[in-house]
Write a sequence for this structure.
């Protein structure tokens, strides 16, 4: 993990290799300003851009965000359409940034039901990503933690039946069937927006993650807020179920 001089002036901190964030509070942010919810999502996408750049600069290797869950389809049609349009626009623009800054990007979730243009964009980001091996942004799209585990179990069962896998499946082996295959588990999970729950996000991967909750609404989230979360992470005593040495 990288070491970084924290901008809050609190000293040097270990930077988590992988940070996961539940993007929450876009709707409330917009409502507070008398704007439509969709304006909150546009502001949230902008904040993602800023935080991703900051993460890259301080030495985070992976940033994973929860942008659209399997449950989010139940939102008003207009809102779903706007979020999809924003993602389309965002991915389109991200392609140029990826080439310029050698960034990798991966979409985690069931992308089979997304629009053809989004799927094309996703394929393009995959193609570009295969050329680089630096900072990686993961966007969870049509993602659900239980659905992810279920599709992994189904694929493993098929492999087992076809003789491509054996019965002695390990945790590491099972992880390779998840959308997040090859990505290390997040050390730090951040949820802005005031709620204190996991909402079906990275259920398998967060087994030992430190959770950090903030009342700041996602569009207002800043690098300083991220530093606060990293400072708190550095104060935590991570034992992974064992006992402290010494
Ligand atoms: C949660 O806020 C936010 C979402 C469900 C959508 C997030 C999507 C984006 C920011 C679009 C683009 C994303 C990227 C990564 C480019 P909420 O609507 O639940 O807020 P509320 O709890 O205040 O209603």
């Amino acid at each position: 993990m990288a070491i970084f001089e924290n901008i809050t002036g609190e000293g040097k901190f270990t930077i988590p290799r992988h940070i996961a964030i539940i993007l929450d509070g876009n709707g409330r942010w917009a409502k507070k300003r008398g704007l439509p919810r969709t304006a909150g999502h546009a502001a949230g996408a902008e904040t993602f851009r800023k935080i991703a750049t900051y993460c890259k600069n301080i030495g985070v290797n992976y940033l994973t965000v929860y942008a659209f869950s399997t449950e989010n389809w139940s939102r008003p049609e207009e809102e779903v359409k706007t979020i999809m349009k924003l993602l389309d626009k965002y991915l389109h623009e991200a392609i140029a940034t990826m080439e310029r800054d050698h960034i990798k990007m991966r979409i985690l979730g069931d992308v089979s039901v997304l629009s053809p243009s989004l799927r094309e964009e996703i394929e393009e980001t995959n193609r570009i990503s295969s050329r680089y091996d630096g900072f990686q942004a993961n966007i969870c799209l049509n993602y659900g933690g239980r659905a992810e585990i279920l599709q992994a179990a189904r694929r493993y069962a098929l492999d087992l039946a076809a003789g491509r896998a054996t019965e002695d499946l390990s945790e590491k082996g099972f992880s390779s069937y998840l959308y997040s295959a090859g990505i290390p588990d997040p050390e730090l999970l951040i949820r802005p927006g005031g709620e204190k729950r996991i909402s079906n996000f990275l259920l398998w991967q967060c087994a030992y993650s430190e959770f950090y909750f903030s009342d700041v609404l996602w569009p207002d989230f800043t690098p300083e807020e991220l530093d606060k979360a990293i400072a708190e992470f550095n104060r935590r005593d991570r034992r992974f179920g064992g006992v402290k040495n010494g």
Remarks:
- The mean pLDDT is 93.
- The radius of gyration is 18 Å.
- The beta strands are 3-5, 12-14, 18-22, 62-69, 104-108, 136-143, 188-191, 210-213.
- Helices lie at 26-32, 37-58, 77-101, 116-129, 145-161, 171-175, 223-235.
